[in-house]
């Protein structure tokens, strides 16, 4: 068995601070819990304090540390206030997850401008703003010589989607916005690599969550499982390993611009 100290040197996040935007949701909440379990101080960001409290209790139960900050992910001023609050309370920011998202299964000709703009705001603008606000901090910290330990860089993980890799039926605006998130992430990975700031995308396959329950009709479930070699949906905890890899300065030090697919083989299935 590998020595625990060796594994901790690769995946341990002690002393790190992680901001998880969308951390009150099911998927990002599990990712936040995993970060806390690896030693990071986690800041859950969202609008629902009750959901945050439930997740914080789980984090505390595994000996982790975290707190909640209410913020609207589509507001630059609120994200800037979040950044300042984290720096004031925790002293640093090392890992940022941009995971706010909404979905819709409206037939294409029935999509209203209001619905289209709402999904673009949450799925794309929030990532754009999160990368601007927190990416600027990370890049400037690197340009200034690094953090107090002399280390440079940091990690931004954006939540993508299989619908950005293979367009999925009935989720037109969602697919378009997630495709843009993938493209933006790769662009930023290229720009910020010289500063040691890594930007990657975690690409979940089918994980039942609040935002997609309405589109998971029995017919659609049968179609999804028939196209997934693992023959099941993913569980939120199964995103933790990918999260720790991309968040770690050690294990993930040379990984940037990656679209890491976690889908039970969905993307590998043809006929």
TrEMBL record:
Record key words, sorted: Oxidoreductase
SUPFAM superfamilies attached to this UniProt entry: NAD(P)-binding Rossmann-fold domains
InterPro entries: NAD(P)-bd_dom_sf, Sc_DH/Rdtase_CS, SDR_fam
Entry-linked Pfam families: adh_short_C2
GO-annotated molecular function: oxidoreductase activity, acting on the CH-OH group of donors, NAD or NADP as acceptor
Keyword 4Fe-4S in annotation: no
Family from the record: Belongs to the short-chain dehydrogenases/reductases (SDR) family.
Official protein name in the record: Gluconate 5-dehydrogenase
Organism field: Cephaloticoccus capnophilus
């Amino acid at each position: 068995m590998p020595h625990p100290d060796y594994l901790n040197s690769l995946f341990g996040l002690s002393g790190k601070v992680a901001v998880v935007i969308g951390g009150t949701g099911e998927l990002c909440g599990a990712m936040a819990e995993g970060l806390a379990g690896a030693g990071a101080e986690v800041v859950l960001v969202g609008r629902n304090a009750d959901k945050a409290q439930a997740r914080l209790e789980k984090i505390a139960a595994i000996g982790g540390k975290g707190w909640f900050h209410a913020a609207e992910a589509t507001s630059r001023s609120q994200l800037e206030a979040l950044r300042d609050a984290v720096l004031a309370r925790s002293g640093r920011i090392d890992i940022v997850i941009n995971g706010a998202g909404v979905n819709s299964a409206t037939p294409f000709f029935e999509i209203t401008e209001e619905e289209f703009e709402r999904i673009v705001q949450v799925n794309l603008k929030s990532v754009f703003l999160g990368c601007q606000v927190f990416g600027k901090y990370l890049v400037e910290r690197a340009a200034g010589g690094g953090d107090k330990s002399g280390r440079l860089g940091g990690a931004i993980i954006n939540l993508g989607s299989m619908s950005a890799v293979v367009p999925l039926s009935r989720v037109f605006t969602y697919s378009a916005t997630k495709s843009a998130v993938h493209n933006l992430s790769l662009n930023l990975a290229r720009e910020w690599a010289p500063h040691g700031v890594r930007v990657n995308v975690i690409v979940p396959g089918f994980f039942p969550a609040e935002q997609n329950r309405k589109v998971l009709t029995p017919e659609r479930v049968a179609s999804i499982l028939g196209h997934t070699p693992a023959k099941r949906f993913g569980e939120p905890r199964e995103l933790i390993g990918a999260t720790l890899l991309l968040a770690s300065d050690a294990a993930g030090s040379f990984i940037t611009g990656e679209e890491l697919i976690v889908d039970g083989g969905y993307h590998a299935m043809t006929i």
